[in-house]
């Protein structure tokens, strides 16, 4: 990705490509993710953010290097989008609330993104909760209602959804791993094997059966064919 030039109209394109790049790079530490993003905000900057972008990026780098702590990818995404996405455009944020869906996104990441959009749109708790319930995965909502954990305020409701969704995702990962392990144990053994890596099939137990001796093979001692 190129350096971000501060243009609001180019932010979505730049940020989308940057996130894809980070996924492909698969850096081992949060500091590498953060520094990759922040250093792309230090070049010549035009538009509405010309006066603040270099200062913001350099300040974040200095603070994190001094404390040796960096935000994870979820927190970094929320931070960047809150800083540079057109958050003053309430119509844009409301439009995003109306079309956003969790799908396969992790609950932690989705909650952070939805909360940012709701704040940017200036949505009331009632409206935001209505849109949130349209966007959440049904299995998470089902558990919320079964357990009686629905809240009337958005902040509290997000916390409950975050907890329930995270628990379901952790349970799913554990169950999938356990099922894969048990499946590997229960696989039946095959009735055939291979001769010492030659790739030639053999019947198990074949070595215990006497093999017929060809007629041209003679006894080593007397030259007779009494092996027959």
TrEMBL record:
Source taxon at top rank: Eukaryota
Protein name in UniProt: Retrotransposon gag domain-containing protein
Species, as recorded: Pisolithus microcarpus 441
